Amino acid sequence: MYKCRVGYDEWKSMIKKHREGTFENSSDFNGYVGLLSIEEVSQKQEWKYKDETITVCDNGYKWLTIMPKDDYYCITVMMDSDYKIQVSYIDMIDSQGIDEDGVPFFFDCYLDLVVYPDGYVKEDDRDELDEALQNGDISKEQYDRALQTAEKLRQTFFRDYDKFIRFVDGRLKFITNTDNMKLPERLERTGSYFHSPFS
């Protein structure tokens, strides 16, 4: 396993960025919520999906981090400058903490889910999870927990994509204090993609 900080330092294309984050303790969520504002990149980052090219990192983009306190996953919601979701990336994790400089971190447990704006969920890096077990990098308990966590997310959040969007909406409002801000209407469909800029 390897340590990941929610400042996303491994994304070397980010030249200038600003992170803000805090802990939410409400009836809806208990854990860390952060918003990364990507101010300048050396090169935009694009992912392929079906016949589309999805930009996930570019000037003005926003990444929302959602990491529950007592669970084993961390969500990164990658949004453009208008807060439209491009893709959501979910890391299965083993443990989490806070560095001395106040930046939260987690230990990545290899398995990931990628959730596209049409609701399709793709399992990613299962081969890395299997290899980590074979090499003794993780225990059978950690291996099983990663799989169980991914399946739980499939059966809860991602069975109803609109419900997931409402959950993300709540976390975004919390970190930005935009309860009274009038934003474009949520969940307007255009083609195969959702417009999700959080009312």
From TrEMBL:
Pfam families: DUF402
InterPro entries tied to this protein: DUF402 (IPR007295), FomD-like_sf (IPR035930)
Source taxon at top rank: Bacteria
Regions that span the bilayer: none
All residue ranges annotated as the DUF402 domain in the record: 27-158
Name recorded for this polypeptide: DUF402 domain-containing protein
Species assigned in the record: Butyrivibrio proteoclasticus (strain ATCC 51982 / DSM 14932 / B316)
